[in-house]
Amino acid sequence: MEGTKVVIVDDSPFSIAYIRGILERHGLNVVGEAGTLEAVKEVIKDKMPQLVTMDMTLPGTDGLECTRAVHEINKDIKVIVVSSMMDDEIVKAAKDNKVSAYVQKPIDEDNLMAAISRVMDSDELYQELSDKNIAIFKESLLDGINKMAKSLITYQDEYTCQREFESKGLTIIIGIIGKFSGRMLIDLSMKTAHEITAAIMRKETNTNDEVIAVIGELANIISGNACSVINRMNKAFGLRVAPPTIMHGESVCITSPGFYTTSVIGESEFGEILLNVGFQRGDDHWM
């Protein structure tokens, strides 16, 4: 992202100076500025930036018209709206006009740079996530079992898959959204789930409902902790977890999510635990 060529579109000298200061502190190269539609067309053709920050309220025009003008010149230029105006209708219109992100004034420096990072570093971010996610989720599962059930896990070999499989009895699926969407899946037998629940609760369990509730919350904690670690690596990931989807019973078939995932078997004193994690490329997620 450092060295990215940026044009600032705004009719306020203060806003231009303020945005320029943020961008230059982070190593971006501000190559021009504009405050009218004609000035936008001229500076884009002349400087051909990689990124444009776009105010929505401009004399004689608006940010959406200017965005369309930018993309008529070069559809690959990324546009991030930076404006005091922000509501559902205008955000939808911005998305429809291929705006890549929307940051509201007053500008928070961290939020602006995180938005730029999400937009400009997509390939590098996805590779970083692909390289590190399974190790982070494995550590989170190990830590969760260690702290809550006072037991350890040893892992077998990892393998990549893109196919359905048959559950051993209880499957917890956690959807993940953010810069990239994905899922974490934990699968285990009901016997193993009962034994883990008994260790966590420090008492024997009699009902499947209690077991399902405990293992569901354990999976939620594991996924949330792992996503927090990834977000600390880079705020641009912006990962968030959805409530767990729980399936149990005999002959339950778990379908493929439609993208490659990595699986690993964790061996514990309670039995085997399958951990499966994966993320996919897609449209950039707005934050």
TrEMBL record:
InterPro entries referenced in this protein's UniProt entry, alphabetically: Bact_response_regulator, CheC-like_sf, CheX-like_dom, CheY-like_superfamily, Sig_transdc_resp-reg_receiver
Keywords, sorted A to Z: Chemotaxis, Phosphoprotein
GO biological process: chemotaxis; phosphorelay signal transduction system
Pfam families documented for this protein: CheX, Response_reg
Keyword presence, Phosphoprotein: yes
Domain Response regulatory residue range list: 5-120
Modified residues (4-aspartylphosphate): D55
Function: May play the central regulatory role in sporulation. It may be an element of the effector pathway responsible for the activation of sporulation genes in response to nutritional stress. Spo0A may act in concert with spo0H (a sigma factor) to control the expression of some genes that are critical to the sporulation process.
Protein name per the record: Stage 0 sporulation protein A homolog
Organism: Lacrimispora algidixylanolytica
